[in-house]
Design brief:
It is a peripheral membrane protein. InterPro entries: AAA+_ATPase, ABC_ATPase_HisP-typ, ABC_transporter-like_ATP-bd, ABC_transporter-like_CS, MetN_ABC_transporter-like, P-loop_NTPase. Pfam families: ABC_tran. The protein is built from 9 helices and 10 strands. It has a domain at about 90-155. It has helices at about 40-45, 70-80, 95-105, 110-125, 140-150, 170-185, 195-200, 220-225, 230-240; strands at about 1-10, 15-25, 30-35, 55-60, 65, 80, 155-160, 190, 205-210, 215-220. The chain is globular. With about 240 residues, it is an alpha/beta fold. The structure holds adenosine-5'-triphosphate and magnesium ion. Magnesium ion (MG) binds near residues 40 and 161.
Length: about 240
């Protein structure tokens, strides 16, 4: 579904991604772990061109998204993204947050968009919040709305950048539950997270990144129980 060839990213003199090669297949749940500053967010943001790669190529569903003729909006419709800090529009109700892109970008009728939004709200357990504003919601609720908003575009893949890192501990579980439901439905997902329990339970593959490279990867069992690389061992020793 996503093929990455020799992906390179520099911010000025800072070399953040150093030749990453990856193939994310349909239905995979890829969890990315690694120290702060290793390039996890930058990698995720390159996948949907929130950051422009400085080298290499990315194919999404067989089409190069790194050549100049790409249609960024079309691409982004097919990739849902969920951020650490929710990024909901504060001046809009929950319902308006969820229906905005389907109406504006997909030119969907308001009634249809709202029907889809209510179905999604039901799925994330927040039907009663449709007419609330983000500031009236808890962090966990905001993040579940952000997930519903991304799903409203019927994406082919969902990218998550530390979706639970800004949450109070008691709210982490409710967001992970929604994410696990998505896994059960077969959604292709790329998830940067420090939730190792989640990774162990649902990842089809774990990538360990350090200093702009994927140092080691494999099934969760291998990475967590039997890491090969000394840097992976060091990192895991600190967080587990
Ligand atoms: P964390 O776990 O703290 O979120 P990360 O692995 O996601 O870290 P990135 O956010 O990808 O790391 O950052 C990798 C490096 O690139 C860091 O040194 C960071 O300071 C730098 N960087 C990221 N975004 C920019 C930017 N827009 N301009 C300049 N430097 C940046
Ligand atoms: Mg990050």
């Amino acid at each position: 579904m996503i093929k990455v060839f020799n992906l390179d990213k520099k911010f000025g003199d800072l070399h953040v991604l150093k030749g990453i090669n990856e193939h994310i297949k349909k239905g995979e749940v890829v969890v990315i772990i690694g120290p702060s500053g290793s390039g996890k967010s930058t990698f995720l943001r390159c996948l949907n061109l929130l950051e422009e790669p400085t080298g290499g190529e990315i194919l999404f569903e067989g089409v190069s998204i790194t050549d100049n003729n790409k249609d960024i909006n079309k691409l982004r419709q097919k990739m849902g993204m969920v951020f650490q800090d929710f990024n909901l529009f504060p001046h809009m109700t929950v319902l308006e947050n969820i229906t905005l892109a389907p109406i504006k970008v997909k030119k969907m009728q308001k009634e249809e968009a709202e029907k889809i939004a209510f179905d999604l709200l039901e799925r994330v357990g927040l039907k009663d919040k449709a007419f609330s504003y983000p500031k009236q919601l808890s962090g966990g609720q905001k993040q579940r709305i952000a997930i519903a908003r991304a799903l409203a575009m019927s994406p082919d893949v969902m990218l998550f950048d530390e979706p639970t890192s800004a949450l109070d501990p008691e709210m982490v579980g409710e967001v992970l539950e929604v994410m696990k439901d998505l896994v059960a439905e077969g959604m292709t997902m790329v998830v940067v997270t420090h939730e190792m329990g989640f990774a162990r339970e649902v990842a089809t593959r774990v990538l360990f990144m350090d200093k702009g490279q994927v140092i080691e990867q494999g099934c969760p069992k291998k990475i967590f129980n039997n890491p090969e690389h000394s840097r992976t061992k060091e990192f895991l020793a600190k967080i587990l």
